Amino acid sequence: MDENFLLNNETAVRLYHNYAKEMPIIDYHCHLSPKEIYENKTFKNITEIWLYGDHYKWRAMRANGIEEEYITGSASDYDKFLAWARTVPMTIGNPLYNWTHLELQRFFGIDTILTEESAPEIWGKVNAQLNSEGFGARDFIKKSNVRVVCTTDDPADSLEYHLKLQEEGDFDVKVLPSFRPDKGLEINRDTFGAWVQQLQEISGQEIDTYDSFLKALESRVRFFHSVGGRVSDHAIDTMMYAETTKEEATEIFKEALDGKKVSLESEKKYKAFTLKFLGGHYSELGWAMQFHINALRNNNTRAFGLLGPDTGYDSINDDQIAKPLVRLLDSIEQESGLPKTIIYSLNAKDNDVIAAIIGSFQGGGVPGKIQFGTAWWFNDNKTGMLDQMQSLSNMGLFTRFIGMLTDSRSFLSYTRHEYFRRLVCSLIGEWVENGEVPDDDKFLGKIVQGISYENAKEYFDFGL
C-alpha cells in the first residue's frame, strides 16, 4: 500500500497524483451524527472511533470466531481493539484490510501493519494523538478536504444541530440534512402509528386523514429545504409498484392508522402513491431523490432480539427490480416530471439493469440527470466498484458519474474516496494502455476531476 497502491499502470499513476488526489469531497450520503459534528466530538481511544457501531468490522470479527463480548459486549475497549487486531490479518482480500491501513496512514501517520503483536504500540500512538488537539470530529472532516456532508435524517427530526451549526457559522463545511421518510412508507411496521404521531407533533399538523398526512410530509420537505436540504433518500428493500387512485390510497392509510395490517397489494399501492407525491415536491424544489434497493435486513432473529437493527445481520436481497422500478419512475415522470434521481442496488446482478434503465429517463438539459449510484455497502470493494463503473460506461456516460459517497457512521471513512479514485484512474489508465481512448492527460484529467468532485458539485444544488 505505497503511494501507487491500486494504480496498475503509468497512466493511472499520473492521473491520480496530478488530478484526483487533491480534489475536495462532496459526501452526499452518510450516517454521521450532526450532533457529534456540532459538538466536535473527541474520542477517548481508537476503539471508540473505529469499532463503536461499525457493523462491517463486527461481521468480520464474528467470522473470525471472536466472541460477542469482544464485539458489542462488555469487554474493555482495549480488549476489543486486540480482538480486531487479531482479525485484521485474516481480512486480506476484503476492503476492510485496505481501509484499516489507509486510515492508520492518512489520519495518524502510522505505516505499521496492524497485527496482534503490533497492536499495543499502535494503541498507544493513536490514542496519544486522539487525546491531543486537532483530532475531533470536525478536524477529521477538514483533514479529508470535505466541502459538503449530507447526514441522514427522519422527517420527524427537529434538525436542531444543523440549525445550531448554521447559527454558529464557524465551520466552513456545509452540513446539510437528507430527507429519509422510510418510517412513513413502511405502513405495515408496528412502529407506523407511533411515527405518525411524531410527525403530527413536529409538523403541528393534525393527522387524521391521508390528505393531512401528505400535507404534514410536504411541510417537512419544505422545512428541510429551508435548512439547506437538497437530497432525499429512500431505503426500498423490495422494489414494488401498483397503480392506484387517491381514494384507494386514502382508505389504505386509514386502515393502517387504525392499527390494521394491509395486504401486499395495498402496501404496493400506498407506497407508489406516496412516492409519486414526494417525487413531485422533490422535482419542484430541485432536489435529488435517492433509491437504495435490494437489502435484506435483520436476517438473524435471535441476534436482532439481542442487539437490534444495523448490527451486522443484513445481507443482499435478490428481488427482481426492473419492472416495478420503471413503472414507478415513469409514473413520477408523467405526474410531475422526474427529479434528479440516483439509483443504487445492493445486488450486483442489477448493475446492467440499472445502467440501462437510467438511459430511458435522461433529459431536461441536465447532464447525468438520472444516475446509477456508486457501488454500495456489500459492493463497495474493488470488484464491486469496477463492475459498477464498467456497466455504467458500457451503457451510459461514465464521464458524467457523480462518484463516491461514504455511507458510513465513522469520521475516518473518507479514505474510501481515495480508494475509489485510485480505481477510477486505474480503469481509465487501462483503457489508455489498451489503445481504447486517447493518451491525453489534460482531457482525461478533466474527466477524473469530474468524477471525483466537479460532477457532484454541478449536479447538487448545494451552493458551492
Describe the structure.
The protein has helices at residues 10-20, 34-38, 46-50, 55-63, 77-87, 95-108, 119-130, 137-143, 160-168, 182-185, 192-203, 210-226, 246-257, 264-285, 301-307, 322-335, 351-358, 382-395, 415-433, 441-459; strands spanning 25-27, 146-150, 174-176, 178-179, 231-236, 288-293, 295-296, 315-316, 340-345, 370-372. The protein has 464 residues and is an alpha/beta fold. Helix 9 (160-168) links the parallel strand 2 (146-150) and strand 3 (174-176). Helix 11 crosses helix 12 (210-226). The longest helix is centred in the middle third of the chain and has 22 residues, at 264-285. The mean pLDDT is 97.
Features:
5-stranded parallel beta sheet; 3-stranded parallel beta sheet; alpha/beta
Lay out the secondary structure.
Blueprint: H1 10-20, E1 25-27, H2 34-38, H3 46-50, H4 55-63, H5 77-87, H6 95-108, H7 119-130, H8 137-143, E2 146-150, H9 160-168, E3 174-176, E4 178-179, H10 182-185, H11 192-203, H12 210-226, E5 231-236, H13 246-257, H14 264-285, E6 288-293, E7 295-296, H15 301-307, E8 315-316, H16 322-335, E9 340-345, H17 351-358, E10 370-372, H18 382-395, H19 415-433, H20 441-459
Helix pairs in contact: 1-19, 1-20, 11-12, 12-14, 13-14, 14-16, 17-18, 18-19, 19-20
